[in-house]
Structures
1.
Amino acid sequence: MNAINILDLTVRYSDKLVLDQVSCAFKNNHLTALIGANGCGKSTLLKTINGNIRAQSGQITLADGQNTYQIDTKLLAKRISMLPQTPITPEGVTVKQLVSYGRAPYLNFLGQLSEDDKEHVSKAMKLADISDLADRSVSALSGGQRQRAWIAMVLAQDTETILLDEPTTYLDMSHQYELLDIARDLVNRHGKTVIVVLHDLNQACRYADQLVIVHKQTIYDQGSPKKVFTEQMLSEVFNLDARVIEDPESKTPMAIPRATRQTPTATLI
């Protein structure tokens, strides 16, 4: 079953065509990585799925057949959550307060957290391993801690589908893998559907069940990494001359750029 189906989606920014008749599907209880060169439309696709951007044509439907454009914004926020590339942290907010913002779609007309809301906030912080940071100011956290706090906010929203737009940007290597382990765990242990934009192709292959490859404002290919991550794809989509081998640790495809011939340098006299 597919969590999200996209058919003939076209998006423009003023006169600029960003997505051109995009059709693809995101499987339920899978981690899907969106990959493609810079500016190809990956982030725009996420924002359109989340309802932040309105498409000029085409449709997005959920597993039950509902068109996202026909769902009330608050109801859609109970089904799809998104962590943008560069979220802005409100001044003076603690970690617990930030995570509680994820409960906004569920609040009563007074804007008060119920006991159920508080339980979701506590559970989300535990899943993101930041319970001990609850009373810390978000602005005082390290990059990795801050990103986990934002992830916890998304988890508190308790949606069936989670969209992550380049969540590993600005994180060091260990924190990148730590965050992707959390994303993988959300699928394996909690039955979530996760769609993530990644620039590191080897990480995408290691963690994703499915790749959706965006190229020239449309879908180049989609499928399992072993099926679609090929040397031809790397050449055509990324202009990258690379070998595809098996990662010795994860047994997933891995790109190894071929050595480029060095231009001889003149001998200084």
2.
Amino acid sequence: MTTADMSFDFANVDPEIRYKLLTGLVVPRPIAWVVTKSVKGVVNAAPFSLFNVISEDPPLVMFSVDTKPGDRVKDTLVNVHATRAFVVNLVDEATAQVMNNCAINFPPEEGEPEAFGIPLVPGTHGPVPRLAISPVAMECKQVTTLNFGPRRDLVIGEVLALHTRAGVLDPTNLRTNYDTYQPVGRLGGTMYAHLEDRFSMDRETYEQFSARTAQEAAAKETV
């Protein structure tokens, strides 16, 4: 294994290698288990690990959609364009395996929840149901979709409603109980990560920083 620093000029790197580098290094990533509904009523559930929350006012999330083999448009994107609605379900240790199963390339007429017997809960703010087994679900409406060429679309949605399993949030202060939630993060390749090892860091104010550095400077002058 090399011990030298490495640099990559992405203009000269194949997309497959870019993907390997980016998804292997930008970790851990949250997983969006996106549920959509076709115009024919088929409920689709597909995982996406290029996902995150991007704003709280307005409450916005985004996920990135690539294409199927042969550059065919994924069912998720077709359904979002048709209904402008989707539900982002988050993934924990208890649901990780069935989420991974939903990455199988099913045909449009066959939905993953039905194939794997995943119970559904009707939506409260739209036509798309959420997964009953998910610890957290966000009902969203499509705000916009940005296209970045034949193989990539970025879906941005506004969160209309948030649902959590009992015990995920402390009802008195709304803090997340990670011992109950146990989220799973995405790494590179076929690897995932438990988020069990956590630590906390306090942040100084500018005034505290100024006072501390002044005290340290004064202490050095007296030495």
3.
Amino acid sequence: MDTRQPPAQSLLRHLPESTVGAAREPAPVHLWNPELSGELDMHIARDGTWYHEGEPITRLALAQLFSGILRLEEDGRYYLVTPVEKWAIRVDDVPFVIVRLEVEGRGREQELRFFTSLEHEVVAGNEHPIRVQIDERTGEPSPYLLLRDNLEALLHRNVFYQLAELAEEHQWQGRTRTGVWSRGIFFPIDGDSALD
């Protein structure tokens, strides 16, 4: 087997059977600490499309399975991890994209339920905060939602427009900010959250 570019199937062979059966549930990658196996010719584009050897992965279940063994480490790199293998992959921005928003309730009582292109479902709140980062060059906002651990999803432009329609002003950390509520928590969306 070519150790520089093994087939992606080798990763799947080393997954516990219980993990393979639940393609959308993340594996306990925080418990696995194998040595680095190398670099895999796989990357995730900014639009959330997964590519293997330059070709898009078109089977949703396969992309879901790979997403369940994804880990972002302190070195800022993303890895696909099994109990015995750890392969570095490229990620253009963040690994997931939010493509749909459902709103339940109104005002401070509302819940913002987000769905990724891989059918992950998350409600914004204390464990799943929304943050906005402003591109210094273009001034364009990039809104993100924390999905799990330290893995984030980029909100698609249309979803961000929906958020903007729900936005209201609120005194937040001593300033009037524009933002949205979910599960009783206010999330500013009018500037660079990372600077607050």
4.
Amino acid sequence: MDPAEPVSRALAANLRAARQARGWRLEDLAERSGVSRGMLQQIETGRTNPSIATLARICSTLGVSIGRLVEPPEELGHVVRAAEVAVRPAGAGGQARLLINDGRAELWDFLIAPGEELRSPGHPEGTGELLHVNTGELAVTVGGAAFSLGPGDALRMRGDRPHVYANPGAEPVRFTMTVIYGGRQDPRYAV
């Protein structure tokens, strides 16, 4: 494979996306940038690589950096496969799975058995949590305030205070939670 091929593919896709996000046709970008429609079409289909000068004119017109237009797709998103997710015990018969994180936020999937509870001393200052109950009943206590949630309910809460997640029901409770760090990330789950 030509080493420039991944860059050409990224440039083609990113240029097309940037142009379309502005509602511009190839003709519109050509007129604004001074780069011919034919050249733009060849770039967007990956049939040619523009000179730096041509790329600079296109980027200036779109208001984006050259780096942004040649950014490979893997920099735009990252997939974590189910088999890669670590499962941690959560009480007797429960589990906590850190599905994905990016250094600023974490997405968790929890399963808590009936009668079980999970306690947290609180995360770093400025941390918040968003919870969504999928199945079962969830009782949450944070900083002395109590919340009862059922299937489909969601809660936004402070994560920087001691908190408890409890299952008061007769069935397991499954919920997803996003932890959003306002300052530094909890070192226990750092990327």
